[in-house]
Amino acid sequence: MKIRSLYLISALLLVIILLTSMMGCSGGGSNVKGITVQNVGEKVRTALQSLHSYEADMEMAANVEGVVEGQTMALKMSAKANGAMDLEAKKSGTEMAISVTGKAGTEKVDQTTKTSTYIIEDTAYVGTADESGKMTWKTQSAPSSTWDQQQQTQQMMSLLDSSNIKYLKSEKVQSTQCYLVELDPDLNLLWNFIMQQMGSSSPDMDTSQLSNAIKEATVKYWFDQDTLFFRKVYVYIDMEMDAEMLGAKSGSVKYIIELTSDFNKYNTNMNIQLPAEATED
What band does 92 get if pLDDT is binned at 50, 70 and 90? Predict the structure, then answer.
């Protein structure tokens, strides 16, 4: 039970990270300085064609509570990440630390994982730190579409075509005037990402099950009014999975996940440097 549940947490974390780079909105109603829910998608898509580099910082917190097959689970999870992307230089780098504490059945959980992920041209370098902090690196070929501007834009806009806008208004993020868009995210798209990360052996869930599992899901985007580049993202998910959804005989688990990402330094030299040890034999 412990292993499966921790794996699900990791899958949900990845879903949220993906959401932070996928701006989505469609619907009707509001108008803020000429930007409407009808045209914001098209305008953001056009703006993203000129976005070549940026930095991002992310913080996430999650609570996981429940009883599965008679075993109690009470876990807290936190994550921090910072990264940079430079499409023109064909470089990206992300440093992340994830901590999980609490209990899963009779076992006490107190684990911190640090990872580094760099993509330089056509090669990906992934480092994982052991308890002493020493990194073990693996390399692999990067997807051929990694530096394709059109592919990147399409990925970023995947939710735009499948979610509804709750409202659109003007709001400041620190000193930056932004358009704030709140979405009703497409639950099927969200669940498809979860299933992809959990593997083909994961239980199937139809639309009604998914609607019952996710009690609340909020996605907010703040776009810089001058550039229409994303400035901030907020994601909140409250969901409860029953035994069938977990692939267990009995029980249920409640997940509450909250994430904030901030984006800045658009179209500047990112100075992304691959650590020397990543290429050592």
Answer: very high
Radius of gyration of the CA atoms of the chain, in A: 20
Which residue, among 225, 217, 226, has the nearest Cα to 258 in the 3D structure? 217
Q: Where are the domains of the chain?
A: 2-77+145-267
Q: How far apart are CA 264 and CA 82, in angstroms?
A: 11
> Alpha-carbon distance 115 to 127, whole Å?
5
94, 31 contact by CB (below 8 A) = no
Q: At what angle do helices 40-48 and 149-156 cross, to 10 degrees?
A: 150
Contact 185, 159 (CB under 8 A): yes
Pair 127, 135: CB distance under 8 Å: yes
- Which amino acid, one-letter code, is at 35? I
List, for residues 136-162, the tens digit of each pLDDT value.
999 999 888 788 776 666 655 666 566
Q: pTM higher than 0.70 for the full model?
A: yes
Which residue has tokens 């429940």?
A: 66
The helix-helix angle for 187-198 and 2-20 (nearest 10°) equals 130
